[in-house]
Amino acid sequence: MASEMETSGRPGRWLRILLFLSLALNLLVVGAAVGFFLNGPPAPRGDRSDPVLPYTRAFDEDQRRELRRGLWRAMRKDAGAMRAGYLADYQRGLELLRQDPFDQAALAALLADQAARGVEVRTRGQEVLVKFLVEMSAEERRAYADRLEAELERMRSRGHGRDKDRDGRQPPKPPRD
């Protein structure tokens, strides 16, 4: 039996849905990275953790503020062009999704370009982070390492407690048939 692709020359519905979801996920990740680098991490809400990397969560508030300034200085000259580029990519993605016939190769190339830009932004952020750590005294780095270790321990304990409710109790298991 021939597939839909073989008979009509068009990708199947599930492939288009998968590509759309892939595009949406890539846009979400890139948008979050750009938002973080341009605006800093979101303010913590209640008992929720900051969705930023454990490395940045381990800094105290003054250090996070200084790190954000360093990130802003590193990104400032390109910020407008980056934002315009991302918006142009999103617009191109919309155009590709609406085309008939659907151009799978063009969308894949667009996603690859967006992923490469995301890696570039992430690499710049990592360079700023390393420079920030290098400029710390040995004592400051040891204190930071202790906070990072505590953050990693919190992450481990949250991972093991996923099956517990808000009060830390194990919820009842549904009856088996």
TrEMBL record:
Organism of origin: Mameliella alba
Entry superkingdom: Bacteria
Lineage of the species this protein comes from: Bacteria, Pseudomonadati, Pseudomonadota, Alphaproteobacteria, Rhodobacterales
Alphabetical list of InterPro entries matching this protein: Metal_resist (IPR025961)
Protein name (record): Integral membrane protein
